[in-house]
Amino acid sequence: MAYFESMPYLSDKKFFPISHVTVNCFNFPIDPINQKIVVQAKKKLVILSGAGISAESGLRTFRDSDGLWEGYDVTEVATPRGWRKNPQLVLDFYNMRRKDVAAAKPNAAHIGLAELEKHFDVTVITQNIDDLHERGGSTNVLHLHGEIFKMRSERDEQLIYEIRGDINLGDRAGDGAQLRPNIVWFEEAVPMIEEAIPFVHSADVFVVVGTSLVVYPAAGLINYVQANTPKYIIDKQVPFTQNFHNLTAIEKPATQGVQDLTRILLG
Predict the structure, then answer these.
(1) What is the tens place of the pLDDT at every residue in 167-208?
(2) Per-residue model confidence as pLDDT tens digits over 127-140
């Protein structure tokens, strides 16, 4: 078995001295000058996903139905105003959405993006509240808008709990406040956006899947991608993108578009 003594991380490569009595059993390339094994670091692939990728798993999106989400006005069920006006309606709505997500299955797009982890250092930044990326195999997922299987105190957003069943009026957090879905509603700040920006800025490849780039601040993340970084947008209706350099548009549903993306990235 080869013995490796770690050395400091240097740019995009790692160097390990190799003993003259050991064997390079991993078949890594060896620097012919200093006889050190050279391990190429994986390129950073950052993916911004939206509702379009989950739509192919049967989860409907409000953008496809004139501002209605499963027949509900989004201002009534996805804003602080709606919560104050009728918390029971909001809880009922998200209890139904939780059941819908639990019954849905990850599709080929979710699975295809997860499989890219074999070749890239992948970070998925999703606007979706479902867990289909995780169930599809992705291991590094950042949820911008919260998660359907979590709930929190309406008073303290740091008091977060797992939830698989229903949330009811009268269910209390540890601070005594009513529990609500741990969802970032319209008209609320998106605290995770600050965590997402460094990932986007350091991307070697940036991909947008299933989003129309109209919901801010998430849509603004593309502006943090470095100009020379290859960019790909996959959507049934690719939004206006002429202001961006080095961009490839794949105007297809997510399941088909991710197949095309994989062929392009892996050559």
Answers:
(1) 999 999 999 999 999 999 999 999 999 999 999 999 999 999
(2) 999 999 999 999 99
DSSP conformational letter for 10: B
Residue 181 CA to chain centroid, in angstroms?
Answer: 19
Name the residue among 184, 193, 214, 59 with its Cα closest to residue 125. 193
Catalytic residue among 119, 143, 145, 245: 145
Q: Count H helices, E strands: the chain?
A: 8, 13
Q: What is the pTM of this model?
A: 0.83
Q: Is 143 in the active site? A: no
Q: Which amino acid is at 210?
A: G
In this structure, what is the dihedral angle of CA atoms 53, 59, 64, 67, given to the nearest 10 degrees? -120
Span 55-92, pLDDT tens digits: 999 997 765 555 456 678 889 999 999 999 999 999 99
| Reported CATH class of domain 44-266 | alpha beta
Q: What is the DSSP string of 253-264?
A: -HHHHHHHHHHH
User: CA geometry: angle at 50 spanning 44 and 53, to 5°?
Assistant: 95
Q: Locate 246 and state its tokens.
A: 């080095």
Pairing of strands 68-69, 44-49: unpaired
Of residues 170, 171, 132, the one with CA closest to residue 148: 132
User: What is the location of CATH 3.40.50.1220 in the chain?
Assistant: 44-266
DSSP lists the bridge partners of residue 36 as 17
- Report which of 43, 34, 36, 58 is spatially closest to residue 12, judged by C-alpha positions: 43
